[in-house]
Amino acid sequence: MTTSRPTVTVGIGAVSFEDVINVARNNAEVKLSEDALAEIGKSAERIRELANHEKPVYGVSTGFGALASKHIPLEMRTALQRGLIRSHAAGSGPEVEREVIRALMLLRLSTLATGRTGVRPEVAQAYADMLSAGITPVVHEYGSLGCSGDLAPLAHCALAIIGEGYVRDENGELYETADAMEKYGLKPVELAEKEGLALINGTDGMLGMLVMALDDLDRLTKLADVAAAMSVEGLVGTDRVFSADLHELRPHPGQGDAAANMLKVLEGSDIIQHHSGNHSTYVQDAYSLRCAPQVAGAVRDTIAHARTVAQRELASAVDNPVVTLDGRVESNGNFHGAPVAYVLDFLAIAVADAASISERRTDRFLDTARNRGLPPFLADDPGVDSGHMIAQYTQAAIVSELKRLANPASVDSIPSSAMQEDHVSMGWSAARKLRRAIDGLTRVIAIEILTAARGIDLRAPQVPAPATAAVIDRLRQEVQGPGTDRFLSPEIEATVEMVANGELLDAAQSVTGKLN
């Protein structure tokens, strides 16, 4: 049975987070609204008027960047736009992921649809048609400084709509663009005044990666709370520190949400019931258990700030020069990626710390001085078996990498274009390292859950909380329980997959209901 594809309609207003995810990750078809096509047509007429004006207009009748003072004759302007795209398609390195390129193209189309860029309707339609056909331009890792737009990545996409360069189809097969266009019934566009410039001046790549990172982190933060609760349970900690009245004393919203999640996951746990009275020999838990909501909450509040920035950027028309609502064509600096770059770096810091506290909880399970009665390294026959000893090494290696990735890209700037572009954001680089960081966090959480599940199983006959049991039941469909040493890497990868696709979170929420 064929699964129907979603459809995203791009209008004059902002595209939504859901629109970006549907196009980038769910292969949605893309349409332009009639209102957007009409508005695009109006600004295109204004650019045509200015093209014949005696007064030079940047990007319309002049060169670019440090060459902005050079007037371009009318007969050379088509060649100017085509040459701009060819010369700026200068990326190098590995190919960028398909989902990133599709998000980038959708967001550039969203700006075109505002009618503030001066392109003709057929240029915008070419982007919608290419996205709907599932054709993805080949874009390379390096080439954007996050200022004057994500220049090289956007130029590789613009190169495709003029029928040049390379693309891949939805199955990943590589084509010369002209061949792919012929196969899918598309026609190349001949660019007019300003159109080449309008296709490469935007924060679309870094913004697309930010939106997808937020989508990933919405799921991972909830599952990190589940993992923390499982560790508290497996280490015979207390859930009293998650009580709402304690967190109301320090009313950070994310902290309260995280604590409430942990309480829900631990509800009904037989393992931690001895903490309900006054007979516990443990005065208080270690920070990695007791302070889990405070760290998880700070991560959540950082995500909330980043979401606000992303929403503002989605509502923006980023181009230079821009066609104003009253018909002026004005140079501006809205293409500078600083607002997006800062939150991308901020998220990388939060991701590194979320992974760091997760690794500390895992390590506690393996040390008999701290694991409250469990065998060394959770091994079946310690000495003969090593248990999860090296799983923690893997976590530690990832966490160390995440700390390096938390070093901000946005504090760096290398001048370009003969010092005309003398301060740049490095936002693309910030986005690329955040994607790697989120992959690392996914793996660290997976190893914590794998280890906590083993620790909880070793507490039998004490019974875990229903939500915890549901997570372990789903895990055990792919990964065996405690026993002698086995080939561990496939078990880690299977758990990583269940973390990434949301199956373990779904298992917990089947008991708790939707978590915060």
UniProtKB/TrEMBL annotation:
Gene Ontology cellular component annotations, sorted alphabetically: cytoplasm
Annotated pathway: Amino-acid degradation; L-histidine degradation into L-glutamate; N-formimidoyl-L-glutamate from L-histidine: step 1/3
Entry keyword Hydrolase: no
Enzyme class (EC, first level): lyase
Entries under PROSITE patterns matching the protein: PAL_HISTIDASE
EC assignment: 4.3.1.3
Taxonomic superkingdom: Bacteria
GO biological process: cinnamic acid biosynthetic process; L-histidine catabolic process to glutamate and formamide; L-histidine catabolic process to glutamate and formate; protein homotetramerization
GO MF terms, alphabetically ordered: histidine ammonia-lyase activity; phenylalanine ammonia-lyase activity
Keywords: Histidine metabolism, Lyase
Compartment(s): Cytoplasm
Predominant localisation class: cytoplasm
Keyword Zinc: no
Entry protein name: Histidine ammonia-lyase
Species classification: Bacteria, Bacillati, Actinomycetota, Actinomycetes, Micrococcales
